[in-house]
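[step 3/7] fold_predict: job queued, chain A
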Amino acid sequence: MGLMSEADQERIARAITAAESKTSGEIVAIIAADSSSYLYAPFLWAAVLALLVPWPLIYFTWVSMQWIYLIQLGVFVGLLAVLMARRVRHALVPPSVKRSRAHRRAVEQFLAQNLHTTTGRTGVLIFVSVAERYAEIIADSAIEARVPKGTWQTIVDDLTRHITSGRASDGFVSAIEAVGSHLAQHFPPGSRDENELTDHLIVLP
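[step 4/7] structure written:
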């Protein structure tokens, strides 16, 4: 099974359709496996550790420089093979870097899904990046200006609690309903054209 079963995706799509029937706003929900490959991390750590290998061999052994070089190369290749595993690779990256990459991808998706071009500037993105354990809601200017500060974070906190407990689809549905209620309050249906964006959950590799 992938990030979300087909049944869960259909349930989330129905939740988006239901929420948007009560508002002129647009909701897009995205779940991504990760926000970066972080391929640099295994190379960086393997190189740093391999650079330390010659020093004890030089000072405490009679191993020739040629053998030291081959040992160093072997350590680098061996570490690289071990650290290249996806879970290990992600564990090597500092949390602040992962949050930054996930936020950047969320912004990229906000633009890629044309949420910034909706009539009335009422698009809202619900974004989750699984590997980074990151969730964010990004709203366009019109709705952002009318929603009290901290509202989106409250919804995100509830979403992440659901995901942590293994109920990702429940979390998405709850978040969609909460976002939809704010959109309906400020932007009731009929104030602009019909549905502009997709109503299904977008799953990114």
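[step 5/7] annotate
The mean pLDDT is 91.
The longest strand covers residues 26-32.
exit 0
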